[in-house]
Design goal:
Helix content: 40-55%
Radius of gyration: 21 Å
Number of helices: 8
Keywords: Repeat
Distance between the termini: 33 Å
Strand content: 15-25%
Shape: globular
């Protein structure tokens, strides 16, 4: 369901190089199921943009921008809209603006902003640092990391395809397990893939052995097949 609202003017924030946006979002309050409205209002020379959030059943969020402009100075039909989905980088910039404004975010929003960084790490490894920064902000707000957060951060490390960041991924797994959170099939597969992408085959073998101990993993799977598949994925 897409939720968007009109807001009156407030300080300008340049969200992309080509347009200024009216930033708006509704986030769920997980404690009492009420909605909290966050927003700023910005105008560009080409019109007014409104950013809304589509909430899905799995609590994932989708950020959209709607530009409203006059069809024609003499038109009687009013305004027309041009709707687009924000890029991952634009969403991260929305995060920066909100934090600078002192907005309180809940787990769902933190998770989604980390995921935007995760999607960027394939082509832009520098977003790994941003993902860790957002995750640290999450801790400062009193929100503990769970298995899902650790998984996303490990995935960020792997997607950079850098040996030193793969080491960080292994360190995150160790930290998580020391906290009593067990590794999942997704975490094992992600780290095995990280090893495969960097040709660290021997390092992947102990991970596969631990993976095969999980109840949900069927017997008979061979290491060579898994390693080859994840390397070529």
């Amino acid at each position: 369901m897409l939720r968007s609202f009109a807001l009156k003017a407030s300080p300008v924030k340049k969200v992309s190089a080509t347009s200024s946006l009216r930033v708006l979002c509704v986030c769920s309050n997980m404690n009492n199921n009420n909605n909290i409205l966050h927003g700023i209002n910005t105008h560009s020379s080409s019109g007014v943009w409104t950013i809304g959030v589509a909430t899905r059943e799995n609590n994932n969020l989708r950020f959209y921008a709607e530009e409203q402009r006059q069809k024609h100075p003499k038109s009687k039909q009013g305004k027309e809209s041009n709707f687009k989905r924000l890029s991952h980088e634009e969403c991260v910039q929305v995060y920066d603006y909100w934090k600078n404004q002192g907005k309180q975010l809940n787990f769902t929003f933190y998770r989604q902003f980390i995921q935007h960084c995760n999607n960027l790490c394939w082509e832009k490894p520098e977003y790994l640092e941003k993902a860790f920064s957002i995750a640290e902000d999450m801790k400062k707000d009193g929100i503990e990391w769970n298995r899902e957060v650790y998984f996303m951060l490990i995935q960020c490390c792997v997607r950079t395809r850098k040996p030193e960041n793969l080491d960080k991924g292994f360190a995150l797994k160790e930290e998580m397990e020391k906290r009593g959170i067990t590794s999942s099939q997704l975490i094992y597969n992600t780290l095995i893939r990280g090893c495969a992408l960097l040709d660290q085959k021997e390092r992947a073998k102990p991970l596969f052995e631990d993976l095969m101990k999980l109840k949900e993993v069927p017997a008979g799977i061979k290491f060579e097949d898994v390693y080859k598949h994840l390397k070529e994925l």
